[in-house]
Amino acid sequence: xxxxxxxxxxxxxxxxxxxxxxxxxxxxxxxxxxxxxxxxxxxxxxxxxxxxxxxxxxxxxxxxxxxxxxxxxxxxxxxxxxxxxxxxxxxxxxxxxxxxxxxxxxxxxxxxxxxxxxxxxxxxxxxxxxxxxxxxxxxxxxxxxxxxxxxxxxxxxxxxxxxxxxxxxxxxxxxxxxxxxxxxxxxxxxxxxxxxxxxxxxxxxxxxxxxxxxxxxxxxxxxxxxxxxxxxxxxxxxxxxxxxxxxxxxxxxxxxxxxxxxxxxxxxxxxxxxxxxxxxxxxxxxxxxxxxxxxxxxxxxxxxxxxxxxxxxxxxxxxxxxxxxxxxxxxxxxxxxxxxxxxxxxxxxxxxxxxxxxxxxxxxxxxxxxxxxxxxxxxxxxxxxxxxxxxxxxxxxxxxxxxxxxxxxxxxxxxxxxxxxxxxxxxxxxxxxxxxxxxxxxxxxxxxxxxxxxxxxxxxxxxxxxxxxxxxxxxxxxxxxxxxxxxxxxxxxxxxxxxxxxxxxxxxxxxxxxxxxxxxxxxxxxxxxxxxxxxxxxxxxxxxxxxxxxxxxxxxxxxxxxxxxxxxxxxxxxxxxxxxxxxxxxxxxxxxxxxxxxxxxxxxxxxxxxxxxxxxxxxxxxxxxxxxxxxxxxxxxxxxxxxxxxxxxxxxxxxxxxxxxxxxxxxxxxxxxxxxxxxxxxxxxxxxxxxxxxxxxxxxxxxxxxxxxxxxxxxxxxxxxxxxxxxxxxxxxxxxxxxxxxxxxxxx
Length: 748
What we know:
- The model is unreliable at 139-207 and 579-636 (pLDDT under 50).
- It is flat, with a radius of gyration of 36 Å.
- By secondary structure, the chain is of the alpha+beta class.
- The protein has 3 domains: 5-184 and 600-629, Histone Acetyltransferase, Chain A; 188-225 and 372-580, SH3 type barrels; 235-355, Histone Acetyltransferase, Chain A, CATH 1.20.920.10.
- The relative contact order is 0.14.
- Strand 19 and strand 20 form a beta hairpin.
- It is built from 20 helices and 20 strands.
- It has helices spanning 5-19, 45-50, 57-65, 72-89, 95-113, 130-133, 152-157, 174-178, 215-224, 243-252, 263-266, 285-293, 300-317, 323-338, 483-486, 626-629, 646-653, 665-668, 700-719, 734-747; strands at residues 384-387, 389-392, 395-398, 402-405, 415-425, 434-442, 448-449, 454-456, 459-470, 474-477, 479-482, 489-491, 502-510, 515-518, 539-541, 550-552, 569-570, 578-579, 588-589, 595-596.
């Protein structure tokens, strides 16, 4: 129901009442001064990743004045979001949080005083608030506007940023923040319930929650318009001509019980329709074997590329984590070993680690050993020379890339990881061998958790383990996104291409304590050099927020599907804790005991994302003083110039102005989009499916005539002297003219 004039007047009174409130201190300031405008997204990019729906008072007031709201309750929701966002992002005992609590209480009381305004169903945070998205426990509303400072446990539960005073000191430099250890950037809260549902749902055991209707179509439509992977490059291929020997080893390899694993490759049809492959030509193991036997490969690079394409096809064909998928990855790792500089002894070929370099994988009972083939809790810089980039099997690997690493315990579950360092070994035993240092990410089945816990689809967890891997351990490139970005879009190329595996990460997992800790600062999980890059892993925006579906624990028996076997397991829910807090804005402790925080300005609670109803946000950054935000901004009036666009001209010919409207999302999803601008590809008319008649041409006879005439003219010009006599015409004199006139008169 549209907003009536009486409701509009009442809403404007409520907003006026909120904006007119001042503090009771000696140095008075406007309480709503920090919530009037939104600052630039570039300066507060982390804020937008944490707050799902940023709002500010001036934009809401403008929307009410221009009749953009269709329901009075929508106005109340936006007004409450301004203050809920501030309470979520800031310290509970900070001045700005106290102001937000005071104004929220004023909003509720003033709204109730006006009977013409409909009462909201609840005064709890809206579903789109950060409290519900990040599932933060909301305390009951305080009786006093300015509550007393909470205890340390209460402050950690609220996941807020550092305290901001009226005249705050200069914020700490980025270098000082990045220098903190990861242990200083996490918080564990004892006795907190295990609840990870960012959509505010119940995380108890029950039916799995799927996506909302249309979510799959939105993602499919976005990925349809993204650039496709061009395929492997021409670097990093094998050099020796051992085609038949390598194919025979792959084809005849058997596991310990005698199963021939190559059936996973042979059962794929030559012309199987596999989406998002880097090639389209038919390819199979039998075809490669035939080419190798008949010596049709001109170089080892061609053979190596065909085998790599075959493994790519098999990985896309088989279901991830299935048995054929695991056999494919084991054979790929065997192939990498056979084509390496130091192939394993054989045949027959055997390995206790499925040919992986590491002796133990995530959460393995064999982990904890010492040596180069065991993971460690810190990066080891000994006997390594750093390099910028490495090439292997057509892959280009550099700092910050996400890869699948061969898992020594379960080939069907490769280890997702991020490259923290590229190097060449200076160890005499491995002198000159290239390798990468990878931060491991664990899968749900590699963790210990309560049976009631639910997980995102394709969710992984940041661990504290680092592994030094040779390039032969790389299976493929992948993508991993933090939750705040994953629900908003997909990574841009070359960070990720459609068809590559894509994971979502929301928490850390400490395997020694068997605890989950929600990641508060995504920058603490990536290499330090990349933390200063604001454009790291940019995304293609979805048309709206899409949450990944939730699934139950892999160890819980589902209908028609047995429990998954893994190194993890089910434990008592009381033994696992989780910091159910936001991804930004908590207290941090220096080693000397002094508490510091992330730089938070007074205007930070109301920092916006783009609001389609109100237009782009202001890029004005308010100062640190309260008085700065009270300054009125006078805009210079702009003279409206006549519209001289082609659209307007066509409209004037038709006798009226042309009106353009934005396509609604439910219609725009059916159209292809530009991969760079994400705009709908729109054409004035459909393509004409008709044969274009050829343009008229001269006949051969006519062309022959023209050639003969041109030749004749050329011959004539060559025969004519260059200096021909020219006749000069001289006008008659006056005497001659008078004589002619006289003669004419006399004869007449």
